[in-house]
Design brief:
Radius of gyration: 21 Å
Distance between the termini: 72 Å
Number of helices: 9
Number of strands: 0
Number of domains: 2
Order of helices and strands: HHHHHHHHH
Strand content: under 5%
Helix content: 55-70%
Largest sheet: none
Shape: extended
Length: 167
């Protein structure tokens, strides 16, 4: 388990109330959660950080952090859902994340209904076992988008070739 200095530092103690700390907090969590060796000891997937960065909240926070880390963002960072000093395992009945997911979402999305929280896929990559539709859509886009770009590049190239031959 992390100690105070993992998050707050030793001599240059970071102020947790600043936009800078908030925007950099996912990186702070990733220092452990993206470490394969450390997470394997606790049977925790390192996909938690990657899937956070890939979703809307993480992408936005990453943009804020890279453009100007001192600019406040209202997007959820890790501790907004998981807490700060009271972090529990997701399968712990007292963690409240899964049991109270709707209430957690409603802290930032007051009009959210059960469908809103039910649409969250969790911190795992889509697979045929977990979210097969999302997995198949991801595969579809991974094939169609590059295929479309290649096809359009081919069309433009042949048009340029045709025009060059005509001159």
């Amino acid at each position: 388990m992390p100690t105070c200095i993992e998050c707050h530092g030793v001599h240059a103690i970071n102020d947790p109330t600043t936009a800078l700390f908030r925007n950099r907090s996912p990186e702070l969590c990733a220092s452990c959660h993206a470490d394969e060796e450390m997470m394997s000891q606790y049977d925790i997937s390192t996909d938690v950080f990657d899937t956070y960065v890939d979703d809307f909240h993480g992408t936005t926070v990453t943009i804020f952090q890279s453009n100007d880390p001192n600019t406040p963002t209202n997007k959820a960072v890790c501790y907004d859902c998981h807490g700060v000093h009271n972090i529990k395992r997701p399968d712990d009945p007292d963690s409240g994340i899964k049991a109270n997911l709707l209430e957690t979402c409603q802290q930032c999305h007051p009009g959210a209904t059960a469908n809103f929280s039910d649409s969250w896929t969790g911190h795992h990559r889509p697979s045929l076992q977990d979210n097969p539709l999302m997995f198949l859509v991801t595969i579809f886009y991974a094939l169609v988008i590059p295929g479309t770009v290649l096809f359009l590049t081919f069309l433009v190239g042949t048009d340029i070739y045709r025009q060059a031959r005509g001159r």
